[in-house]
Structure formats: structure tokens, C-alpha cells
Amino acid sequence: MQKSWTGHGWSITFDGSIFLISSHGEIKKIKPTRSSPMTIRRSWFRRYLFHAGNRVIRLTGISKQDATRIIISQAIARSLHWATRFKEIIQSATSEQKWIPREIVDDLIQSQPDRQLVSDLMKRSTAGIMTLEEIDARKICEIDVSSHIAEVNERIVQAEMQTNREFFNRIELKPLTDEQARAVITFDNRLQVIAAAGSGKTSLLIARAAYAVLRGFVAPERVLMLAFNKDAATELQRRVEQRFTSVGLNSRGIRASTFHSFGLDVIGKATGIRPRLASWSNEGQDIIEIGKIVDRLCDTDIGFRYRWDLFRLIFANVPTSPDGGSHDGYNKVTRESGFATFDGKNVKSHGERMIANWLYLNGVEYEYERQYSARTATSEHSQYRPDFYYPSADLWHEHWALDHEGNPPKTFDGYLESMAWKRNTHKINRTNLIESTWAEVVHGAGLSTLEQKLNQHGIKTDWNPDRQKIGKNIIKHEEQWTLIRTFMRHIKSSKLTKEAIDARLDTSDRSLTGTRTNLFLDLYWPIHNAWNQRLQAEESVDFEDMLSIAADHLENGAYDAPYDLILADEFQDASQARARIVRGLVKRPDKYLIAVGDDWQSINRFAGADISVMTKFEEWFGKSSRLELTTTFRCSQKICDVSSSFISKNPNQIKKNVRSAKKDSGLPVRLLRCETQAQGLLFYLQGISKVVEEAKLEEDPARRVKVDILGRHNFDKDLLPKVLPENVEINFRTVHKSKGLEADFIIIVNASSRPRGFPDTIVDDPVLALAMATADDFIHAEERRLFYVALTRAKIQVTILTEAGMESPFVIELSTDPNVEQLFLEGTKTDPIKPCEECKIGQEVMRQGPYGEFPSCSRWPACKGKKRVVNLKNKSNRRAPRRSRYD
């Protein structure tokens, strides 16, 4: 559409995008935009046309009336052109029943003439009369583009659901739900689908690809489906071929690939040399390779060997606060739990354990909590017992639970007053006292300072990491290799350099700075460099580098991928490198991405997953549409209700209401509590076997009932009895390995309150925060998502196995759900679970006090929750006396 206007000595022609302006023989081309329209300004006795603040052309002899006509002509021309384009887009989309994508919507919004300005200028037209076309254009330019196109797209969705109903019913073995069909039809440039467990993510991806080919939107050879492992990619490819054939479509050319396989292709085509993946970088072999590097460094560098053992034996698994850590020791004499030391002692804090273990490995003789030499006991306080005593020097040592600011944990009532009293006691009695603090030891030069003080008092140190050790808390070399490899995965996936990590240290939380972190980094970088040197020597790459290099080539244009439709599965587990690959694939116009995942099932942060790729989708990929699949074909409604309520306790999760496609509500989730888990599991399996024998499953009597036993760790498999029922298919899996699978019955084992229970209370090493994605600060956030995955594997029923008196926080929480029932194995001596009213995490237990038994929280002293008790002798209410660890 071309428009022309003429005046005295000037003319304007508009072809839809460019204004051609002629003034007295001078010709200029201008492409004005909404943000930089043309203007005419008077300077002395001349008028000039300006664009984007720059003088473009002199309009010799132009009158004020003609100048106004130029400005009005500009507005009218742009309005007419925009209105025509808008109508053509709506008409074409409606007639073809094709979703109007975000790119077109955004372009319309950005190019839309200013509605008020258009209206004002058109009203000021010289003749005072507007044509019908101009009136119509003015009205169209005043439309709210987003709202109008949203209404058009909704009509297209409804029409397509009717027109292609047979296709939606046949493309998968079961007809697509309205939610699935809507996600298929919503052919937007960026579509994020939040899919509940068992809601048919794979069916959606296959239907989406088939719909694109059926409607001619995308050719089969320009469709790429990305999966996270080889089995998933193979299954996708198989189902694409099978389901396309079922509806008479040709699937030839559609590619289902892992990110890694696709990454290798990208590098090969971008550089002309396809890289070789190092065989020793595979899962399992990579840890062994780290071990070999460490051994070589220990053999050739005595300083590295010292730092390696110091970190492994003293600094590994250090909690993030002075009162952190889980008890793993027990004193049979005092009947107190605590922290076990290498020399068989039981101390009261993790900080004291660090000191005790360091003393033992240095051959320093010491006594723990020896009675102080002067008498201090009174009617209200027991005899003072300092933390450490060194008999060879008659030297006392107090280790204070103080943080960087010199403050004790908030739960340590009267701690500072107690410190002052102890210092004063030593001063009065003229006894030698040395001091250390948790913050100094973990993040400062505390151990070096302690060594200097001991030496000054004549106590020599002799470091020997090979001294015989007692206890189960000894970190094995393999565990430290795994920590190094986990850190490396994140360093490489996010392309972080040593300088970048140093910069992060400068701005990080103080819990990440100081001795411990520097010690770890002094170990890590030599290993990192040795790893890369071997890769270079063999001219190979590891998985993380491969993804990053492939992303680089896609981002810088070295490789132009021949795909228009990208379908990415399990997107909640995408790393930053994977996200960069996807972003590189869709950076050009007319590309379409559908990313399907469930933030509730994001459980692979340790392996490089960054949940922010899912929760901050638009920051990564631009404006997008978001849809949900909330109907599950797997779980009963009761399992949906229990699992959804459980995961939604974390406010950081994306909210959704999950519904079951099954007609009946199903069986309740069960908590099976027993004296020993092995006994409980045997009882459960015998019961399932009996049920199966008496009544086969209604849906298919010939099918064997499938039972999956899910453990948080591989060692949970040891709970299985040696003889299993023959009429039931039984599998043990870790919860991580169960992802994407299902069974008729699920039993979750070891839901106990121990460091390696469920939830696993051994938190990520703090140093990982330097390289990993920001962690969710909700308590047990990733463990909660992992437990949710376990709950949602069941088609019929879930049973959670725990030990009476050792119930995990998750069990205690679930015990209040109306769809959860508590079962007791015969002979189990315990009462029903009563969650602590104060913290909601622990449970009420009876404790003995001066006035008899009283209910208190099982998490004491972390939680001070307790109830009043009634003394039946005088019928007066009393509170249980406050206990102190310093008495």
C-alpha cells in the first residue's frame, strides 16, 4: 500500500515503511518509529524537517499550513499502514486457525502509532474531513493489542479443538485432555508448560510435534526434541515414529537427541572437527579420575597432601553455624548424645569435635571436660568443667560457640554471662586459660593460633593423619573426590574462572570466606588444572565443557542450527549450559520453543541443575506464555492431595492444583511405624503378597503387581529381606533413579531422623554455594522435592516406613494430614505422633524433670517447646525448669 501527498514545492510518498520526501529538488528517505517521529521546526525564516533529533532537510518556502500537513500526513500514513497490517494478521490467523505468536504481538505493539497523538492529529486535518479509511484506521490504532489478540487466540484454540478433535483423540493411546490440546495449539514462540507428575509430558511433546507437521507450520526435518538422557531420547524417537504412523504422518527427519549428543554435533559442524568425549568423564569414572589426580598430587606435593588431609579430617561436613550438625555419638555413662571423636570420646558440639580431632591427629594429650581444679559447685550449679585440659602443661582451654560478630546462637541462653564467669574464675584462681572460637577455627586462623599457644606452653604438635581412628564420622577419600567433582561440574557448566570465584568471594556471605574456603580452593584449582591438562593431551572434552562450547557456537553464530521447533523435556533439571544451548537455538526470529517441566520435581541441583531456568523462564528466553498440565493419569486423588499439600509448604514453588483422572479418590497414604525397619518392610511385603493372592488387580488380572521400594540412598537396599514374594514384582531404586517411573505400590523406606535418613540432614558443603545456583532457602527444600517425587510414583498406594521414636520431620508433618493414616506394627511401643505445637517439625516426647514427666519437643534444645504439667500432689501448675548445657 502506497500513499502520496503533495504541496507547494514538496511531496511525500510512503510505501509502508519508508517516507520519501522531496523538497525543491532535494530527496531524503526516512524510516520514522513510534519513539522518533518526524518533526518540523522553524529557524529564523526557514523550516527544517528533523528526525531522531537530527536536521534532515530544508523545506524551502513551505508554509505553516503545509508543515502541518506533513506532520499529519506522517501520522495518517503510519496509521493506515499499521491498521492494514493489523487487520491482515487477524484475518490470516482466523482463516488459517493458526495461533498468533508473541513475536508478532510484540512487533505490533512496538510499531503501533501513539493512539492519542493519532487521534489528535487526524482531528486537526486541514480539510477537517477524514475519509472512511482514515476513520477506521484511527479506531484500529486505539485497540489494546494484547487483549484483542488474546481474544482472537482463544477463539482459534476453541475452533482448533473442534476441527482437530479426531487428531487429538488418536495421536496418543489415550485422548488428549483439554489442557494437553490447548498446549499443543498454543503455537507461541516461547511456551513454558508446568506439568504435574504423571500428567503426560511425553504425550504433549509428541502431539505438539505431530500438530506442527500436520498443519504445515514446521517441516519434520526442522523439529528437534531434546531429552536429558539416552534412554529418554531413544524412547521419544520410538514413540514419535509409532504415533506419527498411527495418524498417517511422516516422521522422517524429526530428531530426538540428548543435549550431549546434540552438543557434539554442534561443535563438529561449527569447527569441522567433531570432539571426542573422554571415556573417564562418564558418571562413576569421573570420580575415580579425580582420585587418581589427587593421589598423584599427594605423592608429588607434601603441602597438597597436608591440606588434603586437613580438609578431609577436620573441615569436611562443618555446619554453617556454631550450634549446627547432627549428633552421632553417645556417652553410655552420662546417657548423653553428642559428637563422636576420632579417639572415642563424646563431645557436645561440632566445634569441640574439630578441636578434639585436631589435637588427636597432632598427638596432643588432653582431657575432655575434666573437673576444674578449684571447687565451684553451689546449690544451684554443678562443678565447673572446662572444655579441654592439657595435663603436661596444666593448661585449660575453652572453645566458645561464637560467630563472626562474637555472638552465640540465639538458643544459648545466658552464654555470654557464662563466658564472663568462666574467665573470671580462671583469673581469681590464677589458672592458665587459652581460648578459641568457632568462627576463628572454621573461617580464620584458629587452628594455627591454637598451635602457637600450645607451643608457647611447651606442648609440641606432631601431625599424623594416619593415626588409628574410631567412629563412623570419618570422611572417606571417595567422599571428598565427589565433593571436588560436584564443584567442578558447576564451575564448568557456568564457565566460571578462578578470577570469577575470587570476585564472588569478595562479595559473598562471611560464612564462605576465610580459612576453610581458601583451603578447599587451594585443593580444587590444582585438580581442576590437572583434569584439563589430561583433556588437552588426549584432545578430548568432558560433558560440561562440551555443552558450554556448543552453547558458545550457537550464541556467536558459528553454527546455524536447521531447526525451527525446539521441544525440551524435563526442563526443571536444565543447567545453565543447557539453557544457553536452547536460547542459542531460538535466538533468531520465527523460532518456536516449548519447554516442559515441573519445578516440584527439581531434584538434580547437585548435578548442575539450576531451577531458576524454570522459575525465571522469561529472563532467559524473553516474553512467553505459560500453561499448566494439572491432570495426572497416575496417582489417585488422595495421593495428589497429600503430595501437593506437602510440596506446597514451600512458598517458592509454583502453585498448581493437581487433579486425578481416576474416578475414585483412592486409598490413604500410610505411615508404618515399627521397632526396626527390616521387620516393618518384611511385614509390608508379606501383606502385599497376601492381598495379591486373594484378589488380583481389577484392570488386568493377569498382570503382576509391581512394587517399588524407594530409598534416599543406595545403602537403604540393605533393608530388603533375602527372600522376596514370588507373586509380586519388586524393585529397589533410589528416589533419584525412580524419576519418570511408576509402580502400583510404593514404599518409601528410612524416613527417619538421622543424618542419612529422609530427609538427609547432611547439607551441601557451603563451598558449593560459590559455584552452584542459588539454593532455595526453605528448610529441606530439595529433600522435600525429592520426597514429593517418591510420593508421586504410586498408582494405587504409598506407604512410608519409619522407626518409632525416630520419625523424620517429613513423617511428623504428614501425620496431621487427614488423608494419611498411622499404622503400628504389632509389638511396637509408641503413641500416635503429636507434632510440636511450636516448631511443627519435631514431635512431643515425655521428659523427666524435677516435678515429674513433662511433654517437650524432640528437637530440644533447638526447639524450646514444652507444655505445663499438673503436679497431682499440690494440684498446682508448674513449668518444667529451663535446662542449660552449661550446668
Q: Please report the total strand number as a whole number.
A: 34
Question: What is the name of the CATH superfamily of the largest domain?
Answer: P-loop containing nucleotide triphosphate hydrolases
The parts where pLDDT drops under 50 for at least 5 residues are 870-887
Q: What percent of residues are in strands?
A: 15-25%
- Helical element count? 28
What does the average pLDDT come to? 87
Indicate the structural class: alpha/beta
Q: Main sheet: which strands, in order across?
A: 10-9-20-21-8-22
Largest sheet: 6 strands, parallel
- Relative helix content: 25-40%
Distance between the termini: 92 Å
Q: How many domain modules?
A: 6
Q: Which fold does the CATH topology of the largest domain refer to?
A: Rossmann fold
Report the CATH C-level class of the largest domain.
Alpha Beta
Q: Say what oligomer this is.
A: single chain
Shape: globular
Give the SSE map:
Elements: E1 3-7, E2 10-14, E3 19-23, E4 26-30, E5 38-43, E6 46-51, E7 54-58, H1 64-96, H2 102-111, H3 115-123, H4 132-141, H5 145-163, H6 165-170, H7 178-185, E8 190-195, H8 201-214, E9 223-227, H9 230-246, E10 255-258, H10 259-271, E11 276-277, H11 285-300, H12 302-315, E12 329-331, E13 336-340, E14 346-347, H13 350-361, E15 367-368, E16 388-390, E17 395-400, H14 415-429, E18 432-437, H15 438-443, H16 446-456, H17 477-493, H18 498-507, H19 515-538, E19 540-541, H20 543-555, E20 565-568, H21 576-585, E21 592-597, H22 612-615, H23 617-621, E22 625-629, E23 631-632, H24 637-647, E24 659-660, E25 669-674, H25 677-694, E26 705-711, E27 728-734, H26 735-738, E28 743-748, H27 781-791, E29 794-803, H28 809-814, E30 820-824, E31 844-849, E32 852-857, E33 869-871, E34 876-878
Parallel strand pairs: 8-21, 8-22, 9-10, 9-20, 11-19, 17-18, 20-21, 23-24, 25-29, 25-30, 26-27, 26-28, 28-29
Antiparallel strand pairs: 1-2, 2-3, 3-4, 5-6, 6-7, 12-13, 13-14, 15-16, 16-17, 31-32, 33-34
